[in-house]
Design a protein that fits this description.
Length: about 425
Amino acid sequence: MNKDEISKEEKMIFPDDQERLQRTSYFIKNRFSWRRTFSSLQHPNYRLWFCGQIISLFGTWMQATAQGFLVFELTHSPAYLGYVGFAAGIPIWLFMFYGGVVADRLPRRTVIIYTQSLMMILAFILAILTFSHVVQAWHIIVLAFFLGLANAFDAPARQAFLLELVDRKTLVNAIALNSTMFNTARALGPAAAGVVYAVFGAAWCFILNGLSFIGVIAALTKMELKPPPRRIQKKSVLLELKEGLQYSMSKPIIRTLMLLVAIINLFGISFVTLIPAWAVSILHGNAATNGIMQSARGFGALMTALFIASLGTSKYIYKLLTIGILSMPVLLLLFALIYWLPLSLLMLVGNGIALILIFNLSNAIIQNIVPDSFRGRVMSIYSFTSFGFLPLGSLLIGFLAELFNEPIAVIICSVITLFFSVLIIMMIRKIKL
């Protein structure tokens, strides 16, 4: 294989010639094939991870759906939905970067076991409060804060942990399969939560989420991992943080993709916060309607994640990324203008497709660039652009919905997202040139 066989897209993903030749050999030899969709499952540790995570994520989406509807039932305020999201984001701003240093210093499996255990305890506390009929909106805000604290350490460790479960040639497939299980849970969990909430009440959704963490914790304890490399000399936390930031900012494509993810989370995806209010106030539905709407996004994302998992080459990465960047704000604008449930669901399916193109492909590009020694810190910055800006977006769109109404709030955010989307596409093309 010579350099002429490498596309412009691959040169962007792997700027160093020798490293690029090594890392893209798998992609050059292989083409699109559905048979490769689940190739990462050949690794025993990844199989354990996949099975444990899909159970846990199913419970997570049940709780997220039920919690949002419970908050709206307690307060009848779209702004309060934003407050809950913002509370979950405060620890992200305070601790996410430090979580990246922890992910590079400590065994990542150990970090994940501790964070998942904390999330399980929080789910059971919320269930007890709801079962006893004493739950109030401020309880949910406090618990959301501690859930955000767990996520600040969990997200960087999970992102960096992936390469301990698979080899590099199946990394992109593993990232896509991670999204597949995430979106399988997002497609099924909210719908199940809508039914359970309507028939049995919110508390049972929280109980099921708490029980679901047992699956992922058990899977982590059963893995047979290679001992992590011993770090002989440790630098200060601040110095390691500075090195991670400097590395991330020194790569134009990483800077641009992180900006993209930040904008999407700040303006593009924050409308999800309003879905419980949208289901009741705009579509005149109930908890089941809320669950179906959440599941529609997950269904579109699931189909797209499976498609990406089947790509055996990086040839189409930037073309697909551009499609996702442009279509997401357009579909969001159409969603804001439609008040009929079937068409609303169709727009949500399309939104799920666009979002997974953006997030999956951005993640795959960044993961393939980053050396292992920086992986935890860089992925903490990447995770920060998601977990850190989404709560701000939730607070913003909740305020706009309270000030105007839900459709106007979504229209404003979709127009802002469209402007930045065009700008970012121009930046990416400039980097490619």
